[in-house]
Design brief:
The protein is about 80% helix and about 0% strand. The chain contains 14 helices and 2 strands, in the order αααααααββααααααα. It has a two-stranded antiparallel sheet. The longest helix is centred in the last third of the chain and has 40 residues.
Length: about 350
């Protein structure tokens, strides 16, 4: 009985299991190259490297499960980063000089922007009857332009206390970024996945017409999904602000491509209806740590982009190959049933 459950789990999550195996190998390489890997600084450094892409992958995973794709996530991250860096100190002054109050107000304001931006994407997809790839490509340009309007040049002022809060350690041992990732899992993914709207993602991505005929509220589910994606992008913008202590509209924007690659590497099917955030976490960590390894090995940034592009192509190829094998298996099973009749 247990063996049957294990086989079923491996069959459903084969790509995710492989991703964690690859992650283990990458961590071994990382340990061999980072001198303080086994000290308290090792986990802190690793989680600070991977946290932003992990959260971005959560938002991308939710959209891909609906058989869509979000090409605006990177631009929205940069936009919210610029907003956070610009409004932090003014809100702090309004709050009587309290950095804590200013930080809370900034976080709430930026998260609201992210949710509204995601809802805007969702409304265009749902009520405009437009393809997600077209909508998010257009809104990505809009968010990029808004980022440049808010911050025409890199800058902004972010207190060191705010930066240390998100990049430091709790009790001197636990990386705060690891706690943020745990909160994303327990407060966003798990409740959402177990909700009716979250369960609907798989039905919509698997067969939207069948989901509609079964009474699933397609429009509401998609609107919630895009709002969650916008929320995740805003969280990434806050984390990026803490890491850089500034806002930069001209920053290199690899979050969109890497979030897609992370989700696909973790076993999320681009056809929709299959995958999980737990696999996407592994994919995001793999991509982030590989970049760290390339930096350790003093490889040029041009080749870093090349490696990331190759990984993305491999991830997409694996996804298409898996979908092809699945369709072939289903056809074979259908043919066997016909012959049996």
């Amino acid at each position: 009985m247990k063996n049957d459950k294990v086989r079923l789990f491996l069959r459903r999550n084969a790509e995710g299991v492989v991703a964690y195996g690859v992650l283990a190998m990458v961590l071994v390489l990382f340990a061999c190259n980072q001198a303080d890997f086994f000290t308290v600084y090792g986990p802190q450094s690793i989680f600070n490297q991977v946290i932003t892409l992990c959260i971005a992958a959560l938002g991308q995973t939710v959209i891909i499960l609906t058989s869509g794709i979000d090409l605006s996530v990177g631009s929205l991250i940069i936009f919210t980063n610029c907003v956070a860096a610009t409004i932090f100190m003014p809100l702090t002054h309004i709050s009587g000089g309290s950095i804590a109050a200013g930080g809370i107000l900034t976080i709430v304001f930026v998260l609201l922007i992210g949710v509204l931006a995601g809802l805007f994407n969702g409304c265009l997809v749902v009520y405009g009857r437009l393809q997600p790839i077209v909508v998010t490509l257009a809104t990505g340009s809009i968010f990029n332009g808004m980022a440049r309007y808010v911050r025409p040049s890199p800058g902004g002022e972010v207190p060191g206390e705010f930066a240390r809060f998100f990049t430091g350690r709790v009790f001197g041992v636990i990386p705060m970024s690891a706690i943020v990732l745990l909160l994303a899992i327990t407060c966003i993914w798990l409740p959402y996945r177990r909700s009716r709207a979250g369960q609907s993602l798989y039905a919509i991505g698997g067969n939207e017409k069948a989901a509609y005929l079964n009474g699933i509220k397609i429009e509401r589910s998609k609107l919630i999904a895009y709002s969650v994606a916008g929320l995740c992008a805003a969280i990434c913008g806050i984390l990026l602000t803490a890491q850089t202590r500034s806002g930069d509209p001209t920053a290199s924007n690899n979050f969109t491509n890497n979030s897609i690659a992370a989700a696909v590497l973790g076993g999320v099917s681009l056809a929709g209806g299959k995958g999980s955030y737990f696999g996407s976490i592994a994919g995001a960590m793999i991509l982030s740590l590989i970049v760290g390894l390339l930096i350790f090995w003093k490889i040029s940034s041009y080749y870093q982009n090349l490696v990331q592009g190759i990984i993305l192509i491999i991830a997409l190829s694996v996804s298409f190959f898996t979908a092809f094998v699945k369709r072939k298996r289903e056809k074979a099973q259908a043919q066997e049933k016909k012959e049996a009749v």
